Amino acid sequence: MNLPDITEFMTWPWEKIAPYYAELEKQPITAANVADWVADWSRLAEYLYETYSRLHVATTVNTTDEEAQARFEAFLEGVLPEAQKADHALTRKLVESGFAPPNFEIPLRNMRAEIELFREENLPLQVEEQKLRNAYDQIVGAQTVEWHYREYTISQLRPFLQDPDRQVREEAWRLMTERQLKDRGPLTRIWQQLLDLRQQMAANADKPDYRAFRWQQMGRFDYTPDDCRAFHQAIEEVVVPAAAEILEKRRQRLGVDTLRPWDLNVDPLGRPPLRPFRDVEELKAKTEAIFHHVDPQLGAYYHTMREENLLDLENRKGKAPGGYCTHFPLSKRPFIFMNAVGVHDDVQTMLHESGHAFHAFESFALPYIHQRETPMEFAEVASMSMELLASPYLTHDFGGFYTPQEAARARIEHLERSLLFWPYMAVVDAFQHWVYENPADAHDPAVCDRVWGNLWDRFMPVTDWRGLEDAKVSGWMRKLHIFQYPFYYVEYGLAQLGAVQVWGNALKDQQAAVAAYRQALALGGTAPLPKLFAAAGAKFAMDAATLRQAVDLMRRVIDELEPIANAA
User: Is the Cα torsion angle 341, 342, 344, 348 positive or negative in sign?
Assistant: First the structure.
């Protein structure tokens, strides 16, 4: 298949791409040629995926770049729907042929589900959905405040939430929240349009509701909505009491009557905030040193990303919120995007997104793009495990960021926040189940507020929100996954449970645990979830017993680190 350089391909209209699909469509598939046919299809898909990724990245690194936005929207409207139709035809052709290359059972399973779900009338709706996601990014990316004669992005205010002065923390928190609340009107309009689009897509595909549509679209073959509810209950039983103890200990150490939202990020013993790096170059250099200690090959992967300018890390005005790792499958390279402002959270984000990048590097060896489509539940094991596998190397001794005392503090903070995350994950996931079970009610933001507030009270103990009720109940509007990636959140909770098991293995034998981790990443999407978890040395589980083992391990290590962190 004779295709041009990717930079040229990115400028092509559909009319120049269509003949390549037509050639594959007319070519018969036989046992003798199926591997070559799929390889040609895979290469064409790599061009399309990389074009999408590069155009999308350009809109997030600068949300004010109108030319980048126009190029992306032109691709979304003029190329992507036609490519999806043509791709669907090839998917059907392969499945109906009865032939497949080796190690293709899971991709075939996924393709059968895609065929059953595909409706041509949904393609323009998906384009509209992507436009609304971009609009969300633009609104949130433009949020700034004036404070002490300086303009700050919301992300740039985050370090002030670690200030030992409670008044400073409160002022920063209120400024952030009041600014975010000002956009409730436009965000409500986006939300209502997204709900309508998603319900229509489900109806077009003959699904009873959007959750059923999305479940199949996400390839969730190994667990059900009822399993998610059981996971929520296990978290309520096992984790919420542990979270309450952590927060109560924080309240006592801070010496306050009640714990307020601006008290959750400051060091509870009054120590100065951790400031791990001065600029992103230092962040890159120290992260690379850490990865070389975790595993030389992982360090080499990260070095490649530094050398090839595949890291956009610093926060700036006009940059989209959050962090992500995408990949360019034709170039066989990942790309990391984040909003670093010099706090420890940035280190954790760097480690997390690098885990995704390593997953991409390891799975690039698989011959077909269809084999590299990893279920997100395991993709997040790759990232969350890396946060934990790298944690022994955070100190200056390994070229890292901290003294031994600071590293112990950072590790305690990470483990405590991981424990606190499970209840928050349950809020987000349970809210999304409610939304798509009750879409008419969810159309009303006041009802959404009430449901979110009730879930918050169920899962999020101790913190005092009196007088801040508007900020509490509207938290769903500040969770981008709810707007942009519906139902994509339970993956984090499941993956964290897997990652803690991988880390538990590493505490006994780091080298063996990292080797198993890399072997599992190299499987890409060629095995079902339970086998992917097992390859990494973990159990795919949603039960209270497995959760309790993980919580006990995390609390034990926190207790072991406390004397180091508190040493004079």
Answer: positive
